[in-house]
Write a structure and sequence with these properties.
By secondary structure, the protein is an alpha+beta fold. It is built from seven helices and six strands; from the N terminus they run ααααβαββββαβα. The protein has a six-stranded antiparallel beta sheet, covered by helices on one side.
Length: about 300
């Protein structure tokens, strides 16, 4: 132990000893204090209690002379009530005068008839529809009669006009997903179903709308274009790529379905580690994809 630690230890011992001595002194003072107190409060309490018991039979509030007189007054005597406290008469002073209704003079029958509203009654012997009844035609009483309502019997002669309708020609868009190596069939099957495509009876994958209509088709790049759906886990089967086909018009707006096909092709290429090509096997750029979007917008806004 160095000198500093020794000094601190001695100081701590002195402080503890001082606190202990102070505590002992306080304890002695507390013990001597109750013994020195006099017993005067106890005696004062007993004296006040005895005095209260003795005063229980005395009247605390004295009664006035008028109150004592009323208590000892005979029942036959009537109490005198001053005029200022007499009851008010709520009689004729507060009743509203009744006004008699003026008698109406009896009116003579002639005056009553003059006050009645006058109605004009029109009498028609024969009622015919608008336009009258032609000679030799059906009468109004005939059950088979049908009014013409101003339309001639031969009908309205409208000039025949040829309405030229410009039908939209179907357009086909395709995006090919290929890689440097062939894709394994189990990986392709898992990827296509993972992006929302379902296998169809034709042996390809399709995307359907909410009503069950096919809007996007995905076929095998290799002939004959179908997938071996009956062998989903055969790792020996491979394919050079897949092609996404969109034929407009569909049940969905052209810009919306074009956006779905582009996004779907991007997801497939990322999962298969491939690239996007057009129908002529040219690499697609972002500008080419934007051109496909613009073509879909133009197709949708074309006049019908």
């Amino acid at each position: 132990m160095n000198e500093l630690q020794q000094v601190l230890l001695i100081f701590a011992i002195i402080v503890i000893a001082g606190l202990y001595i102070l505590q002992k002194i306080k304890a002695k003072r507390n013990q001597s204090a109750p013994d020195s107190q006099p017993e005067q409060p106890v005696q004062n309490t007993r004296t006040s209690a005895d005095k209260a018991l003795n005063e229980l039979g005395e009247a605390h509030i004295p009664l006035s002379q008028q109150t004592q007189h009323r208590l000892h007054m005979d029942g036959e005597e009537e109490e005198v009530i001053p005029d200022s406290q007499l009851g008010l008469s709520f009689g004729k002073e507060f009743e509203k005068p009744k006004t008699e209704a003026p008698t109406q003079e009896e009116e003579t029958p002639s005056e009553t008839e003059e006050r009645k509203p006058r109605h004009i009654v029109l009498e028609a012997e024969d009622i015919h529809p608008v336009g009258g009844v032609e000679e030799g035609g059906a009468s109004a009483d005939d059950d088979d009669y049908k009014p013409s309502f101003g339309i001639p019997e031969g009908g309205v002669n409208t000039p025949e006009t040829e309405v030229e309708t410009e039908l939209k020609d179907p357009q086909i868009f395709a995006i090919i997903v290929m890689g440097t190596d062939d894709f394994l069939w189990p990986k392709v099957n898992q990827t296509l179903q993972g992006v929302g495509l379902v296998p169809s009876e034709q042996g390809i994958f399709v995307k359907k709308d909410s009503m069950g209509n096919e809007i996007i088709r995905v076929a095998n790049l290799m002939e004959p274009g179908t997938f071996p759906l009956d062998q989903p886990t055969n790792s020996e089967l491979k394919t050079a790529g897949v092609v996404l086909i969109l034929e407009l018009p569909t049940t969905v707006k052209a810009p919306a379905v074009m956006h779905d096909m582009i996004m779907m092709s991007r997801k497939i290429s990322q999962r298969l580690n491939g690239r996007l090509y057009d129908g002529e096997r040219h690499l697609l750029k972002e500008s080419d994809l934007q051109a496909m979007r613009d073509a879909a917008v133009a197709y949708e806004s074309a006049a019908i």
